[in-house]
Amino acid sequence: MILRRLSEAVGVSGDEGAIRDLIIPEIADHVTDLRIDPMGGITARQSGTGAEPRLKVMVCAHMDEVGFMVVGHSSEGRLRVTNVGGIDARILPGLRLRFGQDAVPGVVMWPPIHKGSNPKAIPLRELPIDIGAKDKAEAQGAVPLGTYGVFESEYRELGEKMLLGRAFDDRVGCALLIELLQAGPHAVDLLASFSVQEEIGLRGARIAANHLQPDIGIVLEGPPALDIPDPTQEPDDRNERNPSNQLGAGPSLTTMDRSMIADPRLLRFVVETAERHGIPYQMRGLRGGGTDAGAIHLSNAGVPSAVISVPCRYVHAPAAMLHRDDYDQTLALLRALTQELTQEVLTWDE
Fold it and tell me: Is 198 a residue of the active site?
């Protein structure tokens, strides 16, 4: 499965080259106009089989993941790092990281428990990284300023249906887009975008959309699943399942987030297509966060956009978890959409 290789490769925002190198051989024989843009994103075209004029549908998944960058070295040989993308400081103490092409291992420092514990989250700037260096010079030689770091993690299959791995946000979207291209051509003209720097401001998707000039944008994502107990709730309420973004309940369809409101015509058609083909789905309501759709829908003169996601537990952490059925059902929905989307979908009701 291509998802394994994508998950195990490193591609922090601004340094997505290893992911790009995996994707291009997988799609090169299925597309035309393959291009690496000035920011490092991949765009390509797959001409459709439908009657002219065909819809130009941009399908976008971002290659980058959250991570770390070295910004200093202490006299004791420890690293000072900053986050690249959103990372919850509560999960960091004691975690293993790795840095640079040599995968230099490190541990986020934390006082031993017998010295007392601090119940508050410690900011990343106050958490040095121990790489075993004896002094500043050794640390600088092993991991220079500007070196990227990621969580140490391993891809695994859990039972028959569950997959565990780093950076499913958004390597799951990249894997889906690769499989969609390999299954083509489709009725529509498929404009593929493997974007960069989504985690630090939806940057690459805007460049891609301005180049591709799509009629419609569909963004593939791996958003947080909300089907885990919330320790901030009262004990009696902790096991209540959130009504959206559950593993095993099918693709998640965004209605609104902080970056965009899904186009109502397009969202309605996605729902109708899922129901017509017997594909389960779930609606994701108003939540924090944003996706590349926030940049795409404001590009050019405006692009009607939607977000279709595979829910993942524990995103922006060492290992995320997804359900294989959700992945397969999302791919089935995408294949149906790219065969059935027409210009009439964009007609406003009188």
Answer: yes
